[in-house]
Every structure is written in structure tokens, then in C-alpha cells.
Design a protein that fits this description.
This protein has about 150 residues and is of the alpha/beta class. The chain is built from four helices and six strands.
């Protein structure tokens, strides 16, 4: 059984709702999912898990929110080599960079050697009923990708 951590930042509750729905999908596969708010953990905690998902809202004109910057900087100090990862988040299409913080996190993970196993999930504001299903599916797909790797 895979053990997955979901680390997220949420200002209005939208990204938190996404994280909870993704965790439901992961648990539906029989895998374990731990949810942590980014300000309550360090990046080194990722190394205790088989895979990790990072979720964030986008601040300003495409930046990471303040509560995620220390964690993102800490990523530079750990070895993510090949660690299965994916990113999700909420944003607002009225800004020039829609979900820019999601793209920034994914770029950092790639640069540090993490294995991005699926495309990022981006939702405008909070998830609609259809997007709630996509969030659960995102979790299911992530957990199944870890199962496939462990069977090799």
C-alpha cells in the first residue's frame, strides 16, 4: 500500500477542498493519504512518503503565496531524485498567469529531479460538481501510478 502526502496552501478554502477530494480518490484505491497544510510541515517530510502532491493557490499575478515560499526554498536542500510527484491548485483566469504558482511548483520539482507522473490539475476558484469528480480522479490516477511503479 502506497503512502502519499498532500501538502497544500489555501487562503479561501478552494485549494483545501481540492486536497480533501484528491485524498478521497487516493483512499478509494486503498492507499494512505496524509494531508498537511504547508505551514505545518517541512519539505524533508516528503522523503517519508512514496509520493507527494503539492497544492497551492496563486497569489498576485502568478506568484507562490507567502506561506509556500519557505517550503519551496527547503525543497532545494532535499534529494527528490525520481520521487513521484504532481501539482494541483486554484486560480483566477482574470489574471495574466492563470495558476502561475502551480506551474512554478511543478517547474521546481522537475528541476530538482522529481518525477512528475501526471499533468497538473487547475481549477478556477473552487471546484464545480464536475471538477470535484476530476479532483477525485486525480487522486486515483496518482495512487495507481505509484502502484504501477512498485510492480516493476
Amino acid at each position: 500500500m502506497s503512502k502519499i502526502i498532500i501538502v497544500y496552501a489555501s487562503l479561501t478554502g478552494n485549494t483545501e477542498e481540492m486536497a480533501e477530494l484528491i485524498a478521497e480518490g487516493i483512499r478509494d484505491t486503498g492507499a494512505a493519504a496524509d494531508l498537511k497544510m504547508v505551514e505545518d510541515c517541512s519539505a524533508a517530510l516528503l522523503l517519508e512518503y512514496d509520493g507527494y502532491l503539492l497544492g497551492t493557490y496563486t497569489w498576485g499575478d502568478g506568484e507562490l503565496p507567502d506561506e509556500f515560499t519557505d517550503f519551496a526554498d527547503e525543497l532545494e536542500d532535499i534529494r527528490l531524485q525520481g520521487g513521484p510527484a504532481a501539482v494541483f491548485g486554484s486560480g483566477d483566469t482574470t489574471y495574466r498567469l492563470y495558476c502561475g504558482a502551480v506551474d512554478e511548483l511543478e517547474g521546481r520539482l522537475r528541476k530538482l529531479g522529481a518525477s512528475i507522473v501526471q499533468d497538473s490539475l487547475k481549477v478556477e476558484y473552487g471546484p464545480s460538481p464536475e471538477e470535484k469528480g476530476l479532483c477525485r480522479e486525480f487522486g486515483v490516477n496518482f495512487a495507481r501510478s505509484l502502484e504501477a511503479v512498485s510492480k516493476k
